[in-house]
């Protein structure tokens, strides 16, 4: 456990691993006074509940080294020669980059806290596992509101659920930690991303047909003001959403 050690920036022993925690007094949420050490402590405590959602999934690390108001960047490729030897990585070929990328795999508390210590406020796993990287474990419908009351997001979510009930398909919602709702449909890695994305698009279209005044399937934010965007494009290899129980780099440290 990284209790007091997390607050003074000393080494912490987690499951036989020694993790050096740095700059734990740095303020990450200025208005709330929440520190990097408290971020690390959160992931220390939530790890047993959160880790099953991360197991064997490549991580796209979004790092905020100076907190939520500072610049952030995504890091996907891990320098395996420089990181601690106890970390697990997986080399996967990226067609967009036309190169192999060494992704970090988060299967234990020490790795989760290592990511938090790098400034990963939110945790972004793939929808598929390294055993079947081309086959997602679920379809995701991301309800992303654009300048519209949350009550309309709930109305949209209920319509999505009704569509799935009519098709006798199970679905599970979770709050996004930001403004919207993520809706998951289990696939058990039986289908590839193209099939998943096509199905998600069909569902999004059906929901939009029922709620044309408050929903949109148009990607451009400027063209969907005061609408709930039915985002089905997250169903692609390498795309990520904030994991369950992940904090978000938003005021209030929401999840």
What's the topology here?
Blueprint: H1 4-8, E1 11-14, E2 17-20, E3 27-29, E4 34-35, H2 36-50, E5 58-59, E6 61-63, E7 73-75, E8 88-94, E9 99-105, H3 109-117, E10 138-146, H4 150-166, E11 172-175, E12 181-186, H5 193-210, E13 215-216, E14 227-231
Helix pairs in contact: 2-3, 4-5
Rg, Å, rounded: 19 Å
Main beta sheet strand tally, sense and closure: 5 strands, mixed
Low-pLDDT runs: 1-7
Overall pLDDT confidence: 92
What is the string of SSEs from the N terminus onward? HEEEEHEEEEEHEHEEHEE
- Silhouette: globular
Structural commentary:
The protein is an alpha+beta fold and 255 residues long. Helix content is 25%, strand content 24%. The protein is built from five helices and 14 strands. The chain has helices spanning 4-8, 36-50, 109-117, 150-166, 193-210, and strands spanning 11-14, 17-20, 27-29, 34-35, 58-59, 61-63, 73-75, 88-94, 99-105, 138-146, 172-175, 181-186, 215-216, 227-231. A five-stranded mixed beta sheet has the order 11-12-10-14-13. The protein has a three-stranded antiparallel beta sheet with strand order 5-9-8, with no helix packed on it. The chain has a two-stranded antiparallel ribbon with strand order 1-2. Helix 2 packs antiparallel against helix 3 (109-117) and helix 4 (150-166) packs across helix 5 (193-210).
